[in-house]
Model the fold of this input.
Amino acid sequence: MSLPDQPLSPLDGRYRAAVSALGDHLSEAGLNRARVRVEVEWLLYLTDRELFGSRRLDHEQARTLREFAADFGSEQIDRLATLEATTRHDVKAVEYLVREKLAELGLNSIAELTHFACTSEDINNLSYALTISAAVRDVWLPKFRAVIESLRGIAVRYRDVSMLSHTHGQPATPSTMGKEFAVVVYRLERILAQIEATEYLGKFSGATGTFAAHLAAEPGLDWPAISQEFVTSLGLTWNPLTTQIESHDWQAELYSRISHANRVLHNLCTDVWTYISMGYFRQIPQPGATGSSTMPHKINPIRFENAEANLELSSALLDSLGATLVTSRLQRDLTDSTTQRNVGVALGHSLLALDNIERGLTEIDLDEAALAADLDSNWEVLGEAIQTVIRAEVAAGRSSIADPYAILKELTRGKRVGQAELVEFIDGLDIGDEAKARLRVLTPAGYAGLASDLVRYVEK
Done:
């Protein structure tokens, strides 16, 4: 027995609640709404300037046409499906839909200005730029910023909590948990600024980017200036030199930046997962949640694992989009048509990951006692401090030790060394009394340098 119609993608099924806001922009309906808007705005542009014998529409007529585009909904979706079943062309169906509205308003006299001198890509590239920019600015970026703010809060909260670092998975010079989260915030804020500065380009120059049809219809007009004015009136950046398609370089740049953000967040997830496994973070039990189907004691770090997987899927798609979209055979091929329809899927997996990270960060709590115990079990990490102080003493003429690094390596490498052993070692060193005094009171927890102060670089 066949199942009733089911969503093929988990983004439209299991995870719909977390990503549905993207559908308002990057679904087929969202694209068609933008197409109607572009067709209507071009029509109004031409009539506002009374080109080709047209007259300026009155305020109510213009308002009705713009509302028709803005209120695009189920009725228009169904009608477009019917029209496209005949036209077998999605943009032509949109043109006919607008023409039907003009007829309804008694505006048949300007019907031939619908889609005037346009190739489908003139409408499509502007529509994609509008929908992608709205999806990024109104949906993805707010969630991305929210995650950054959550991380900033953790960085500030734990700025003074010393922790044992692990370079190559081995005990290393201590830091603070706050400073480690501040590193992630700083990385993400750089990428955020780059994404916020994205230019969303548009072209409006005809079948091969030459304005040939425009010039044939009216040789006396400055068509590049008209094109620029129209594109920028939509809030986009004008691209003056293209083939039939806008070259999609801005999309490749944007997707590269979002993919970069994904990978930094992936790094965060693997680190938090590891800190949880080390006992640095406790997971806060969620009412009614089951960690394992057979082991009742378990709380699994599923938020971060889910985020990892979705970040990987998103970056794979975004990388593919960026690589594919910048290539078009000669003046036009249609590889970008199917490709661009997957932008929502790529951003959807990233958005789902952001949602999981944001929620996951509220479900962990730092176990400061565990961090302190780990530090107290690894006094050998002070070997770096001791040998560096010896070097300074040698340079200052207060010590004759020949190879400070070698003697500390002999003392600490691959060994557990406690406080007593280190103090005894320090007392026997050929260094000044002031240097000895500083080293005697040094502890692993106190050997975090300026870690706490460095958090100021991400404070607001």
Remarks:
- The chain has a mean pLDDT of 95.
